[in-house]
User: Fold this.
Amino acid sequence: MIENSLRQGLRAAAAVLLVGASAACGGSGEAPPVASVAVTLSKSAAPLGSPIDMTYTFDVAPGQSLDGQYRVFMHLLDADGVLRWADDHDPPTPTTEWKAGSPVTYTRTSFIPIVPYLGEATVRVGLYRADMTDMRASLSGPEPEGRSYKVASLRLLPQSENIFVVLRSGSHAPEFAPENPAREWWWTQNEVVATFRNPKKDATLYLEYDSRPDLFDQPQVVNVYLGSQSVATFAADTKDPLLRRIPLRTDSLGAGDMVELRVVVTPSFVPATIGAGQDTRELGIRIYHLFVDPS
Assistant:
């Protein structure tokens, strides 16, 4: 019963989006495309919760331009057309600066949300005015529908196919953004210890984090270890979430079935003792994703 209600609600939301888009098209008098759109995915199939790269390319048509600031929408729809994931975002180059003959290409790395659906899904993309969400741009792209374009397909696999990173010590409880409960993070202490299953082949550690460089004369230093071997060292100098990809070579993973991962932050701090709030916890950096990808 709950699943049926959820599916009906999501289907209704998707229908509203398409109806609004159709109205924005101005009926049968469709405007000429202002640009073409194409998207390539780094994977054709991926487990829920795993990272995926989406490379967007927009190419403004000769003699055309965008009449304002537009945002990009990405909708992932299941086989029944139910909206399962939306990733609206501002392109790195504002659309007011796009010009014919100069394609705009950028790659966006996202983590697929945990949704109640497995199987084939459709990726549809388009542009809408930032100040008028019901006004979409007319583009040239595959299978147009309400100024939304089917740019790719993605097969969603079970989350169980991921390599799970298990936190053992040094992490605080998860927290959530009030305005976006799907956005989750946790703070480290001085040292986090975690373990994961050895993939026995080269892999990539995805570490998305931010920090408080405004509280220090010199940025904190983050060291990442596999066992006692250092695999990455960097300065924690960003207040905005930053995604790092750290290569994990087969020889650094060792021969055991499990691998110990340590993230050491120097120095740590206690906000209440330095006049930065009432928090009495020892904090290092704030982590949004800690993910091992063997692909």
Summary: Residues 26 and 135 are 10 Å apart (CA to CA). Confidence is low (pLDDT under 50) at residues 1-28. DSSP finds two helices and 19 strands in the chain. The chain has two domains: 28-159, 163-293.
